[in-house]
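Example 9 (inverse folding). The structure is encoded as follows.
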């Protein structure tokens, strides 16, 4: 069965209710769970569905889950920046310490990844980023080479994103990707907007190592579209307020946990 046919059957299975469970899909499709997950990922990247606990739901044209082309779901950058700022600064400094002189890295847009920038001066890095805030912070560093993808600018986040399904990234492969998240839980790394999910998946596919920067408050949230499972994260940097259950969740996934003081 071709991917297009499976996708059509998935959408048909949602029927009038607009929801289908993973268990129902595994019972009705002649495909492995991993194949079904990939099918759902493609549909989610196109904005057709939203993965939720236990399955997936349709994104209706007038649904609040449907992405407005001019804005992104979630907290505006200017508001998010002030939240837990001291923790984010410590996390950013520790993340920057993992960079090696002369290497190429990718930095996803976010208020925590932004805090890496002051500590990258003099390392002669090549940085691919989709964040204009990060570009602005790196511009004074004469030895830092900056690369940008093409796409539309989303002003509330000051981030450049291309529509799902459109590959706008330069031909770039990096040993390290530094990224943030709106939430982290047993389901994985989550973001509030499917366009962000699609953009971050493109970055993950170009990285040898995924380094997640999140303050401890992100473990107390559990909603959003899934960017990746915990198994795809190599290093997680957070602050000392992370609770023991969250520590165990990270360690049991085989992730290297780093605590920023």
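The amino acid assigned to each position is listed next.
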């Amino acid at each position: 069965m071709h991917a297009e046919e499976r996708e059509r059957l998935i959408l048909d299975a949602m029927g009038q209710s607009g929801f289908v469970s993973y268990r129902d899909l595994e019972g009705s499709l002649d495909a492995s769970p991993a194949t079904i997950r990939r099918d759902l990922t493609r549909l989610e990247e196109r904005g057709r569905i939203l993965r939720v606990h236990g399955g997936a739901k349709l994104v209706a044209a007038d649904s609040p889950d449907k992405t407005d082309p001019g804005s992104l779901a979630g907290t505006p950058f200017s508001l998010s920046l002030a939240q837990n700022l001291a923790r984010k600064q410590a996390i950013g400094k520790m993340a920057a310490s993992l960079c090696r002189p002369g290497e190429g890295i990718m930095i996803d847009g976010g208020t925590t990844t932004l805090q890496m920038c002051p500590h990258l001066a003099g390392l002669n890095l090549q940085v691919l980023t989709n964040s204009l805030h990060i570009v602005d912070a790196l511009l004074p560093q004469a030895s830092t080479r900056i690369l940008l993808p093409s796409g539309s600018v989303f002003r509330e986040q000051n981030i450049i994103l291309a529509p799902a399904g459109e590959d706008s990234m330069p031909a770039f492969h990096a040993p390290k990707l530094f990224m943030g998240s709106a939430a982290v839980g047993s389901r994985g790394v989550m973001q509030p907007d499917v366009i962000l999910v699609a953009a971050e998946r493109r970055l993950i596919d170009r990285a040898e190592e995924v380094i997640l920067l999140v303050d401890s408050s992100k473990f107390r949230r559990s909603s959003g579209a899934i960017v990746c499972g915990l198994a795809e994260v190599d290093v997680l940097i957070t602050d000392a307020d992370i609770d023991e259950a969250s520590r165990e969740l990270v360690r049991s996934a085989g992730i290297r946990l780093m605590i920023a003081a």
